[in-house]
Write a structure and sequence with these properties.
There is one protein chain. This protein is an alpha+beta fold. The chain has four domains: 187 residues, Immunoglobulin-like (Sandwich), CATH 2.60.40.740; 188 residues, von Willebrand factor, type A domain (Rossmann fold, 3-Layer(aba) Sandwich), CATH 3.40.50; 88 residues, no CATH class; 34 residues. It is 24% helix and 22% strand. The protein has twelve helices and 23 strands. It has a seven-stranded antiparallel β-sheet, with no helix packed on it. The protein is elongated, with a radius of gyration of 48 Å. The two termini are 27 Å apart.
Length: 576
């Protein structure tokens, strides 16, 4: 039998596995905004409520488009104006009336055209404070405001009450900042009534009564001069005409009396400081002689007259002190206080301008206002030429310094950027070579943009600036990262008088950038344990060259069987 050589061959393969990282980027949804991301889609007819800022999702170049739109009504800031008018209002002073009406007309026109929020109120003071017109929108309430300003009243003069009434209605409007509350006081400066506990509807006065019915303790005789002034404007004469006027001196050597005090604001300040201390702190308790100024009291006087004494404050002293306290409190609160002197006739209180200058000592350096132009600029030009927007970009992004990626829209008009130098762009070139707006880029650690307005901006005609930023500080850690587009953006307003206003911030937006986790490497399969017995070797220790041990055993068995068979045949042959 022929022996066949059987051979089994084993093949082994090696597989190499790798992994790759994948980056993805997107945009987190910004806060809801009334302003569309595309400036051309903005409804310019709708006044903005507040400064706006938007940012688009990162594109394939890792760029985002940022849009700033301003000013909103909040940033142009609502304002309140209260006229505080002497009892006769403007009836006999055409110059003041014409100025005030022209002022009101211009404010109304600007508010209507520019989307400004301005309210006007009117207080007229006689013996009390009369709120003729509550704070009213200057556009819709114009006729009512003008009518209230022209009203006339009579009976008494209580400037303190008028200021208290203005303070009350302004203080009640919590939606307007104190620095945007304006008082226009128009008076001849005379006042002799006052209020207590902030109640501007109840007037008080005090009186020396009839001096001729008082006895001079030094002489034992009645005082020789005067008559019962019934708590009116001439009460000071009873004290001055019957007492020794040389008892105290001003610094210039003049007598310390009312008529001398009313010759200069400096003397009046010294005079009122003395009598304020007497009224509030005197052991004599001079305040006990105050009484309510009713119609009956105006006609009949008081049953509790002040004893004639050089230290006793008269009613005008207390009226000036009280009016000044309230005026200065309003100024200290941040109210804009404006004082106009109205002298309607030669018979008016001609030295009243001294008291009005005294009132204005801390608010207008003691000067009286003569026109309404400065106040008008405060009201209608809140964000005027010289205002800026400062935008600090931060570390995550860089400004894309490319004119094709910068745009400006003002009141619906597109203004193309013109490159002034490597870092400065101008918009809206004028005939004189200047620009209506400029954008300045500063690179470096404190990278920022400064956008400068060379004309006023108003809510109804918003300024819309768009530019691009590119992500440069890419996160590497797996996950979704929220990245601030900038660190801050702030509007720094300057009003029409060049005075700085309150800065206002734009929202700080974020975009998202996602780094995918690396793909997991597959695990190699585990080999089963080797349970085969070790192969047998020949006498020389060699393994079989082909096959395995089972095959070798089979071949040996077949060989043995052949030998046995052959031996049996041979045996039979021998037996036979």
């Amino acid at each position: 039998m022929k022996t066949v050589d059987l051979i089994k061959r084993s093949l082994t393969g090696v597989v190499a596995l790798g992994a790759a990282a994948v980056l993805a980027f997107g945009m987190s949804a910004p806060a809801a905004s009334a302003f569309a991301e595309d400036a051309s889609a903005t409804d310019q007819a709708t006044a903005l409520e507040q400064n706006q800022k938007t940012a688009t999702a990162l594109d394939e170049n890792l760029e985002t488009k940022v849009t700033l739109s301003f000013p909103g009504k909040r940033e142009a800031e609502p304002s309140d104006v209260v006229f505080v008018l002497d009892k006769s209002a403007f009836s006999d002073d055409k110059a003041i009336y014409d100025q005030a009406k022209s002022f009101l007309d211009e404010v109304k026109a600007k508010a209507e055209a520019d989307g400004l929020d301005i309210k006007v109120g009117v207080v007229i003071f006689n013996r009390i404070g009369n709120v003729q017109q509550e704070l009213t929108d200057v556009v819709t309430g114009y006729d009512a405001i003008l009518k209230a300003m022209g009203a006339t009243l009579s009976s008494g003069t209580n400037m303190h009450a008028g200021l208290l009434a203005a303070q009350s209605i302004l203080g009640a409007d919590k939606a307007v900042k104190d620095e945007n509350k304006h008082v226009i006081l128009i008076s001849d400066g005379g006042t002799y009534l006052y209020c207590k506990n902030g109640d501007y509807t109840k007037p008080y006065t005090r009186s020396f009564g009839d001096p001729t019915k008082q006895v001079n303790p030094e002489t034992g005789a009645a005082y020789p001069y005067g008559r019962n002034q019934m708590g009116g404007i001439w009460e000071y004469q009873s004290r001055q005409d019957n007492l020794n006027n040389a008892w105290k001196k001003f610094s210039d050597g003049s007598n310390f009396i009312y008529s001398q005090a009313m010759t200069s604001p400096e003397k009046l300040a010294e005079y009122l400081a003395y009598y304020k201390d007497q009224y509030q702190n005197s052991d004599e308790n001079w305040a006990q002689y105050d009484y309510e100024y009713t119609a009956e009291a105006a006609n009949n006087g008081t049953t509790n007259p002040i004893p004639l004494d050089v230290n006793a404050p008269c009613n005008s002293d207390v009226a000036y002190i009280s009016a000044d306290d309230t005026f200065q409190a309003m100024a200290d609160a941040g109210y804009d206080m404006n004082v106009y002197y109205r002298l309607k006739a030669e018979t008016d209180f001609t030295d009243g301008s001294i008291f009005l200058k005294y009132l204005a000592r801390n608010t207008n350096e003691g000067n009286l206002d003569t026109d309404f132009n400065k106040l008008k600029a405060k009201l209608v030009d809140k964000i005027a030429a010289g205002s800026t927007v400062e935008d600090f970009i931060g570390n995550n992004f860089d400004f894309v310094n490319d004119a094709s990626k910068i745009s400006l829209n003002v009141a619906g008009e597109d203004l193309a950027p013109e490159k002034i130098d490597e870092t400065t762009y101008g918009f809206g070139k004028r005939a004189d070579g200047t620009y209506r707006f400029t954008l300045k880029y500063t690179a470096g650690e404190n990278e920022k943009l400064v956008f400068t307005l060379n004309e006023a901006a108003v809510p109804a005609k918003p300024v819309v600036l768009t530019y691009s930023e590119v992500l440069v500080n890419k996160p590497t850690e797996a996950g979704t990262h929220s990245l601030k587009v900038n660190e801050s953006a702030t509007l720094h307003p300057v009003d029409g008088n060049g005075d700085k206003g309150t800065a206002s911030d734009f929202p700080v937006l974020t975009v998202t950038y996602t780094v995918a986790a690396p793909e997991q490497k597959p695990e190699e399969p585990t080999k089963p344990a080797d349970t085969k017995k070790p192969a047998k070797t020949d006498k020389k220790g060699n393994l079989p060259k082909t096959g395995d041990s089972a095959l070798a055993a089979t071949v040996a068995f077949l060989a043995l069987g052949s030998a046995v068979c052959a031996a049996g045949i041979h045996l039979n042959r021998r037996r036979s």
